[in-house]
Amino acid sequence: MNLPFQNKPLQAQREERDDFEMDDHVTIPDMFVSFLAQEPRINPHYERVKGESETWIAELCQYSQKDYQKHVQMDFPYFVSIWAREAELEELRTICDWMNWIFDFDDMFDEGRFKDDREQAARHVSDLMNVMQSESKDRSSSLSAGDPLLRVFESVWDRVSQPNEQRFLALRRQTVGAGPCFALIEYFYALDLPDQIFDNPAMQQLDRIAREMIVIQNDALSFPKELAGGIDQNLIALYGHQGMPPQEAYDRINVLLKERYREWYLAQANLPQWGEAIDKQVQKYIRAMQDVITANVYWSFHTTRYFGKNTDEEVVQRIELRARIPNPKQGLDP
Predict the structure, then answer these.
(1) For residue 70, what pLDDT is reported?
(2) CA 133 from chain center: how many Å?
(3) Is the dihedral of CA 91, 92, 97, 98 positive or negative?
(4) Packing angle between helix 148-161 and helix 46-60, nearest 10 degrees?
(5) Is the model more confident about 148 or about 83?
């Protein structure tokens, strides 16, 4: 039905809205159709995280009982628990904390202290940018001292921006030098592979696995050198920041490599057959990818880049390398 204030000037709409009574009924379209007809799954950690997140932000921001109850009734963790239904406990808690923050943040501009104070609003946005553009250890303790909601954001940002193993590998796949090496295979073997070969999911899996193997190998072998130079963009350093002792970190490296050897052969088994002429080239390309991985390991023990003049000794006594690795946390800030 047409509402009484439709198709009228804005001021007239406003005046008539004030007189618009709930006796004027409308029918809302059925929202629970298509994939929405199925009852949503809710993250099993919902109840626990809801209580923890709402209590935490209320205590940090010193909410009144009224404001606390408002958050409880809004129940943003319910939204998050459907959206992130398979998230682990820690990640779900972080997203719930962010969701509770974002609504309070938005309210400050809509109806709070920033509504009519652009200068103060601009300063607050600048403070948010400072949080996102600086490391936690470099941040002034006074930045969020007088602003509890900024402290909430700072806590959430530090959790989200802290790399984990999966995010770290995804980033390093793009920065490791394997891509150009793979591209040159076609050149020096005079291969002529059509684009559809590289669009195939199994070939893309092989590319991902090969890149990750090179990253994992490199980080395991280059870590002592990088640690001495104060560089912590390394898997071993990442594990150290997470509290792993050195041997446990290298044991994890071993697990990652074994997983990828298995994935490598499974991906090859899923390759389609394109015909003899193309298949020969594909197999030569894949062997050359393996050769890049092989070259990376053998060169790492051959060069003096990582182990100095003790390279020959290290080749013979590779197993001792693990025992001589310093604690990943030494010389690095957590």
Answers:
(1) 86
(2) 17
(3) positive
(4) 140
(5) 83
Q: Please, are residues 292 and 178 in contact by the beta-carbon 8 Å criterion?
A: yes
What are the tokens at 101? Answer: 């923050």
Structure tokens at 246: 């050195």
Alpha carbon distance 153, 81 (integer Å):
20
Using pLDDT thresholds of 50, 70 and 90, give the confidence band for residue 331. Answer: very low
Q: Which residue has the tokens 């007189």?
A: 19
Using one digit for the tens of pLDDT, what is the confidence trace for 167-185? 888 888 888 888 899 999 9
Specify the 3-state DSSP secondary structure of 20.
coil
Tell me, what's the pLDDT at 162?
A: 73
Distance CA 31, CA 216 (A): 48
- Residue 197 phi/psi, 5° resolution? -65, -45
- For residue 325 the two structure tokens come to 């690795």
Q: Residues 57, 60, 63, 65: is their CA dihedral positive or negative?
A: positive
How many residues are recorded in the chain? 334
How far, rounded to the nearest angstrom, does the alpha carbon of residue 271 sit from its chain's CA centroid? Answer: 29
pLDDT at 317 over 50: no
How do the residues of the chain divide into helix, strand and coil, expressed in percent and rounded to 5?
Answer: 70, 0, 30
Mean pLDDT of 212-236: 80
**Residue 149, both tokens:** 């909601």
